[in-house]
Amino acid sequence: MPGVELFQEERNLASVLAFLSSISNNPNHVSAVSILEDVTTGSLNLLIAINKAKFDDGNHILQQLKDRFEDIFAQLSQAPYSIDSNVEDAVFAAIISMCFKRILCRLRFTNSYIKASRQPITLLLQKAMALRSVKPFFNFMERSRDVIKFVESWRKQETPDELGSLVRSIQHLSKISGFQDVIESISNHEMDPSSKKSLLNGVRKVARYFEAARFLCNLSKKHPSIQRLRFILVKPPSNAFGETSTALCTSTLSSMIARIASLHGLQWNADRICHILGTNEIEAGSRFINQTNTILLEAKIHAAIQLILHCETNKFTPQPRVICASKDACFLCNAFILTH
């Protein structure tokens, strides 16, 4: 940030914007952002990229992100030195508009792109309220009833305003003292651990949309320069996307296991691994080749790598200090970033 050496705030801002950039439920549309300071103009730029297997992949999502982010920050700039509750409401409304479909998916009101239909978190909440093992914390029951009430209102109208009210009520629930303790106090017999984890995770993620609006408003008060944030779409050059060879997987499962075992000094062999997996070497070898070929054919240039390539190619000074993706970085991306 111009004149501000507060790395933590920069990282928090990038984290919030990366979270909001997850507007698609498609796992192929993972996005990443990075904040770049333009020392010549004193302005801030947000670099945005999305996973790409081909040059044109996800371009419509990128443009949507730019347009929606501009809507959010336009609300912040309406009252640059007086961020009040009205501005916060407007920012929150813009966030709901941007992330409408993703919020519905997080609430499990719509099906995930790749996962089977799962119980809505509000249904899990109702089950938690009805269980005898739940400690009778008054605030938990009161806030939970509010959430259920707003769910019913949403189902009647299904408007952005109704969804915003529901998100607010979930944020209020997430902030009560002892919320996690209440859920964890439920016995595994009455609610399986995965459902409890799913409920806690879902509530926290949905609550974050309201918290994002408040965070942006508070940061805007402290650093008005972020109100002029510019959004730049990053796309690799067309020659970065080469043709995948028709001769794909040339390794066998046995040779791959032997190579890995040798590198790490392990006594592995294909027979032993196949026995543990309850299969035979022919079947396992066939599945290994098919899966490897699928990975190679569907390989993408991940968004975080695109941002690094863009910054290195343009030799920005100073270089961005933070890269945040809309989901955890894969092993290879993380290893590359750590060693870069």
From TrEMBL:
InterPro entries, sorted: OTT_1508_deam-like
Pfam families: OTT_1508_deam
Tree of life domain: Eukaryota
Protein name: Uncharacterized protein
Organism: Trichoderma gamsii
